[in-house]
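This section describes the prediction task in plain terms. A model, or a person checking by hand, is given the sequence of a single protein chain and must write out its three-dimensional structure as a string of tokens. No templates, partner chains or ligands are provided. The sample shown here is typical of the held-out split.
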Amino acid sequence: MTLHLKDTDSTLELGRILATALSKIDNPPVLLLQGDLGSGKTTLVRGIVNSLPGADMAEVSSPSFNIVNLYPTTPPVAHFDLYRLEGMPPDDALFENMEDRETLTVVEWAQFLDKDLWPGDAILLEWSPTAEGRSLTVHAMGEAARNVIVSLAAVFEKFMQKPTGLQ
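The expected answer:
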């Protein structure tokens, strides 16, 4: 499935939609984010975190230098950024959070994590620039991820409009 995010507001809205869906289920899938610098990955995380209870105690920023930010929301959000780990294995905290099914785990720069280490249940979001905003390809890996995507299909329709000028 491919979505179109025309601006920051639509990226934040998608984050709110994902947070609502993921926070209502037991054992939510991990979110794996791929995209260039400035593509909107951290903005999406901001939309997720800011829509959850406890967000007033969280300041969302890219965890590029400390690798992980933990936000005291309900449910808690573990926000990883693997940009600085290219070619290096992450520490055990990543794997512990991917297995902690009570935490919403989001991994930026997932392409720097060997695919053999990806969780079996994950939603992969791949950003690509377009003439007007961003294109976001959504991949569901595992049953829980597929169920989330199917449950959001009608909501995603508003993001599926093709940007003007593209064929």
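For orientation: Helices lie at 8-23, 41-50, 92-99, 143-151, 153-156.
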